[in-house]
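Feature request disguised as a bug report, sorry. It would help if multi-protein outputs had a clear separator. Right now it looks like this:
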Amino acid sequence: MADLAEENAPPIWRARLNEANDRFKTLPNNKKILFLAALAAIFAVIVGAVILNRTPNYRVLFSNVADRDGGQVVAALQQMNIPYQLGEGGVISVPSDKVYDARLRLAVQGLPKTGGVGFELMDNQRFGISQFAEQVNYQRAIEGELARTIEAVGSVESARVHIATPKQSVFVREQQPPTASVMLTLFRGRMLDAGQIAGILHLVSSSVPNLPLKNVTVVDQEGNLLSKQAGLDENSGLDQRQLSFVRQIEESYVKRIEDILEPIFGKGNSRAQITANVDFSEVEQTSETFKPNSTPSPSATRSQQISERLANGAALPSGVPGALSNQPPSAASAPITLPPGAAPGTATLSGQTVGPNGALQRDITTNYEVDKTIQHTRLPQGLVKRLSAAVVVNYRRMPDKNGELKPTPLTTQEVQQINNLVKEAMGYNVQRGDTLNVVNAAFADAEIPLTMQEKVTDYVSNNAPNLIKYTLLSIAVLYLLFGVVRPIMRDLTKSPPAVAGEGGVDANGQPIAGGGRLLGVAGEDGEVGTAGAAQMMDEVGANSALREAQIRHYTSNLEAVRDMVKTDPRMAAQIIKEWINADE
């Protein structure tokens, strides 16, 4: 019978749970309420801590929103029951899963409304509008679009653009370029650097036809002229872009040197600085060179002129036909002989032949082509005229006789190798006037490591609010666990006192005088209390026949206890007193 009960008995954890449930039911109501309140408080503290430390996933819905538009957007979000957060600079954020839905629903309502108008002004053109009105609307649209674009800059709260376009003239000399003025309202505490101002100037200049950069004026809300701060005046020397270019060149050379020395000496054991002399002047040069005179044979003939006349006084017909050209020549003042090759009968250029007593005079002028070269040279800006480099290398750490690492200077050969490497890395040029100085010296010690006490102090000082918050939460949870829950759980898990009949013992192990069994169930090895009887009944709950037998046995024992209380009430009172003292 006992083996059958053990086989059909429920698991131990279920029996323990049932036992705890029964004991919880026997507790007074005030302890039950206190226990449940403690559990609820612990759960609330844990949930509150999780919610408090959970970062909500919000994304930007709109940024740089004006106050009027922001109020309308917030009102619309409240009507749509969408949570939102307001940030600095007109930033409105909503939960990440509702960003696109909110944008679409707000777009249907036409929100946010911008302060100016753009090209949407051209959508609803009236029929029969004049050319002047159409030109004004187009200019307003250009100004509005430029203002919207400039407002996208992070430091600009609002912008207004005014464009003055002069009347076009048919005469080229009388044409005047347009001008533009930009009024910026910056956020409080913000400012624009020279690069941002130059960007705004170029943006406006590129958006308006025939608008030169110098005709754009930019001012802020306090009337400060910002366009002069961009440094775009060609006669003012270096501007910000040129200084940035020089800095980039120097940093690139420094990186080359450190990259080639770092694998040899380790990270942080070498330092390099470069000073670059960069020429930003614009040079245009035109040169025309002629080659020396060469022999006539390889040269090309440009022109040739030949003149002939008879030396015997009968000049060849020349000049303008008429009486003056037919006059007889004057008498010869000197004898003239025929030149070589001008024999009698030789034909002249005019087709006449030289007579037996005549002489021919011939003049030949030949012009040859002259070789010349015309060269137009424009030197680029930003040429490096000279480099000055300074390199310092740390001592090597070499072990001494005792095995300790000590700084050791480099040898002359090693310094020379470093010098050669740096020259090759920087593109050393003697003709350009470059200089290089390599120094081997001991670096100062690095930062002294902080002690544990200093680290703890720094951590506490930097995280004091979080530490205080978590400390208070921990104290509250520990108080609820050890001050409220633990005593109640100890009462639930405490073994009930054994009640003895004749020859039995009480909760303190003392024999109890008198006979009979009080609220007990007789087992194989003695009496068992009511809790034991309930536990036994639960353990053999699968066997209904055994359960009925135990119930009958329990009923008979209960009648015996009632009879004992009636016959000997003093003994019953003494036993109850012992129970009360044991519970306390």
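(second protein starts here, but nothing in the output says so)
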Amino acid sequence: MSVRQLFLLTLVVPSVVLAQYRSQVWSPDRGDGTYVNPVLYADYSDPDVCEADGRFYLTASSFNCIPGLPVLRSDDLVNWQIIGHALQELEPKEIFDRPQHGKGVWAPAIRYHRGEFYIYWGDPDYGIFMVHSADAARNWSKPVCVVPGSGMIDPCPLWDDDGRCYLVNGWANSRAGFNSVLTVRELSADGTRQIGLPRIVFDGGQVNHTSEGPKFYKRDGWYWIMCPAGGVETGWQLAMRSRSPYGPYEWKRVMWQGKTTMNGPHQGAWVHAGNEDWFLHFNDKAAYGRVVCLQPVDWSSGWPIMGNNGEPYTRYHKPQARGNTANSKSQIQNPQESDEFNDGTMGLQWQWHANYNQTYGMPVAGGCYRLYTYDLDKQTSESPVTLWNAPNLLLQKPTAPRFTATAKVRFASKEDHQYGGLVMMGRDYSALVVCRQGDTFLLQQHTCMGADEQQPESQTTLATLQPTARDTIPYSPAIYLDLYLRMTVNDGVCRYSYSLDGKRYKEAGDAFTMRQGKWIGAKFGFVSECMNRKASRGWLDVDWIRVTK
């Protein structure tokens, strides 16, 4: 194993004995045997779920974000915990070492087969890939390219009763020049390579345009493909069945918005829990990304009708938890948000915008995470230079419509124009940072409207702050600033404040309206950058970040 691989493992794979985390800002479990949607108020888009040993395992699209393929675990489909990631690096490395917004991992499928977990996904530029592991939390294999080529997306395998393996997938019009069709091909029994040519088994045409995201199942002798149609924001859910994996398939719409306020409820996973069937799907929340909702499934008509006769529920009784009876209480837990950085790792909620490089940042003995300033102007020839091209942003998903994130930081700078702080990142972004100028620090708000369209960044100076410490060494001395940075989010509007003592906070800058990224929701976290570096790097030491009401 290389030094790089060892470092990756120590950075992103902490002990699998994880403390249960309870969010202060969003918990779908009402504590009375019911839940409210979404069960994950975070951008776990294109979710898929499988069951193994009475527990449920979820993965979702991660696109260019690394570590990728997040894996979450639940006992009851309502309370979820992040337990790891199945992908530590995207290939080709020379491509994904830089931000490739909207590329990479599209719509994965997770399955449990003969004692192992398998995850398949489509990279629309390079083909269909697979990883596997006996432990969903760690030790995932190196990716295997099962079907090379461009245009293929949203794959899902089905191991049949006779051991044969079939794969269904959709197609991206942006690469293939066509979409709305689903194809099935046979794979080798171990699921590592194709042994049959693809066949079109469904064409959505005009009636079910944008048919994609298929999931493959078998039930009572029928082959079932469940897929969305109609597009992300306004789509609906289809179910189709056939006596052969190659069709022909008859289809039925089984969920749609109807009279509810839940737009585009579709694309996800059918699972069985206790004596009931359930469907997890996404719902587009604009800047918050595609959040995950849970609906009951009724098979009494021979078709999987979801929610309330096809319309999604906002509140319903919980599924049966492992080892308990229906409607019983299970331990409330939620995906991690806050991080004290005390145990030599970072929390599993964090991701970079490109493949990790150890010069971006490392944990520090004593309990903090250090982010070195990155030479932003060296990364790309595009003009103007913005954070859209920065690979070293340390970010996590918002997990509630309203929350406050407060961080205690120390910024160390060794030359002018090194800066660091908090950022809300998307196609538009805004950051509250401190930037060195001479022997002082400037508190600034950096904002870019249309970063994905190469629009320039504006910088507004809000205050001048004096260093709290200085180096006395003659070689490459630094000046330091200790402060608290705060971001308050209320229904998509972000406001900043800061404090020098952690008690009295002063508002800083203008309110900023969050905007989603390329196929992902907006994300928040830390930035540490510089321009035209001539001396040693500066750094941002993050002592902790706490997400509260």
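Even a blank line would do. Unrelated, but nice: DSSP finds three helices and 37 strands in the chain.
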